[in-house]
Amino acid sequence: MASGTAIILLLAAGLLAAEAAAPWWKTASFYQIYPRSFKDSTGNGIGDLNGVTEKLEYLKEIGVTATWPSPFLKSPMADFGYDIEDFKAVDPLFGTMDDFDRMMTRAKQLNVKIILDFVPNHSSDECDWFKRSAAGEAKYKDYYIWHPGFVENGVRRPPTNWVSVFRGSAWEWHEGRQEYYLHQFHKKQPDFNFRNPVVREEMNNVLRFWLERGVDGFRVDAIYHAFEVEADANGNYPDEPRNDWTNDPDEYGYTHKIYTVDQPETPHLVYEWRQILEDFQAQHGGDERILMVETWSPIEIVMHYYGNATAEGAQIPFNFQLISNLHRDSDAYHYEYLINNWLSLMPSGKSANWVIGNHDKNRVGSRFGADRVDLFNILLLTLPGCSITYQGEELGMLDAYISWADTVDPQACNGAEANYMAMSRDPARTPMQWSDEKFAGFTTGSSTWLPVAQDYAQRNVRKERGVSLSHLNIFKRLQQLRQEPSMQQGNAEIKAVSKYVLAVKRHMSGSYVYISLFNIFNSIENVNLNGVFSGLPDNFQYALVTDKSIRQLSDKVSAGSVTLMPHESIVLRSTEML
Ligand SMILES: *[C@@H]1O[C@H](CO)[C@@H](O)[C@H](O)[C@H]1NC(C)=O
Ligand SMILES: CC(=O)N[C@H]1CO[C@H](CO)[C@@H](O)[C@@H]1O
């Protein structure tokens, strides 16, 4: 057969591949579930995996592509599951491995992807590996970071001045082994030694284990703490330089973190994990598995997690620019800068992602004002790339008032009654509001692990389904708009029209032009879009309105004059394809 035919076949295959090329995650809508508070299936007042399974259809209803439930692996719960005892087992509080498998089966039927929250920086001190390491068993001896410390004038002191995030020395003396172990967090959370290839392989096996069980990827918790500086030839570690703004050696800010976070090796650990995913893919086929990594590092460092010139990294290094830097008074120029800065620093060929809420932050409506709930949902869902929504934000859930007596967050309980509210993450972790039934339909039991928010009778899924411009229905409408070619693959231009108004234009040649407009403040604004974007058609119509709008869906409007009501956000669509 002529080699020409083979070339044509190859070309055809190439074209098909290119058409199917946009991987599922690039414009996905991710949804973070906090399993303790999503749905309780047993009546004990704590959400569980069967509860998640029961509500997967709801995720489908609101157009979610993928969900990452916060950790549900076996844990003594010193830090609500971020301290893992067994990396390959479900905690009985959340269910069983069979429940997990059922959740996966249902998710696959509905085509909702499941991402596992993977917590690699440490294990629990009750983890079998730590016990064996402490006992000096050969294989496990160097699984964690051990050092005998120093004795000066008969007094023992820790190896360095490093401080734990939870206050006090990051080194804890272990009587059994007669050495200190390193813990950057709680003393019940010893840090792994990722310089030990056996530990890396052990973790790689954890990834393989869950891939085999069907997960679509991993969300990697606080990766920037994974490595510490390498020990010198004598096995010693250097002190970190002092910060001059505190003299309290127990305060986390006492030292400047140059040896305990953001070490140059850390992104390479992520590249290694990506390779595990690729290898699995090559063997098993199916849709692309992904890595989402959490790192609260400077933006230039975050970019390394995308990969380097020769190795792929995480598809989604979390973009915390909006969640970290925006506040109530931020003007449109600030929004514009933060968004464009990410897009311009991102290596070419990579995709953006946007985060505005999570289980560690106050509710969006409480941080920015309830009048801006739709604004942030519209922003997240019309920017290019993928959106990441924390459960309940689609309803506009607000922080609940939690009394001191009801407070359970260790971060708040460790402090004093006088200022616990500033520390507590409980207000954003209250049970999901499904209906106006008792306990908001979250449980059939007689109590809940955290109180249900006081406003649940007005703000819940069932009620919002029935109100045409509810936050929930706007969220669903946005998901439909996101399917449009201009939103999926179009270019994006993000511009501040003034201090008050932000504009996002999405367009792909041969399709409609979409423009989202955000009136951030409390005044009426008039915008001439021709002064903002060049080459616009004259006529637009409203593709999305909110309860702030005086115009209706499909009303016509000229590009030369668009009026925005206080806090109004809208999406316009050109009347013609361009
Ligand atoms: C990229 O990372 C890989 C894997 O860690 C490494 O082997 C390679 O040298 C790096 N390439 C560049 C150009 O830095
Ligand atoms: C890498 C990692 O797992 N980071 C986590 C380390 O532990 C603390 C305390 O549990 C978590 O809050 C971090 O997110």
From TrEMBL:
**What residue range is the signal peptide?**
1-20
Q: Which Pfam families match?
A: Alpha-amylase
Gene Ontology MF terms:
alpha-1,4-glucosidase activity
| CDD domains hit by this protein | AmyAc_maltase
What top-level branch of life does the organism fall under? Answer: Eukaryota
> From its record, what is one biological process in GO terms?
carbohydrate metabolic process
- The Glycosyl hydrolase family 13 catalytic domain sits at 32-429
Which UniProt keyword terms apply here? Answer: Glycoprotein, Glycosidase, Hydrolase, Signal
Gene3D superfamilies referenced in this protein's UniProt entry, alphabetically? Glycosidases (3.20.20.80), Oligo-1,6-glucosidase, Domain 2 (3.90.400.10)
* InterPro entries cross-referenced by the UniProt entry: GH, GH13_cat_dom, O16G_dom_2
Transmembrane annotation, as ranges = none
What EC number is given for this enzyme? Answer: 3.2.1.20
**Catalytic reaction annotation:** Hydrolysis of terminal, non-reducing (1->4)-linked alpha-D-glucose residues with release of alpha-D-glucose
Q: Write out the similarity annotation.
A: Belongs to the glycosyl hydrolase 13 family.
Q: What is the name of the protein in this document?
A: alpha-glucosidase
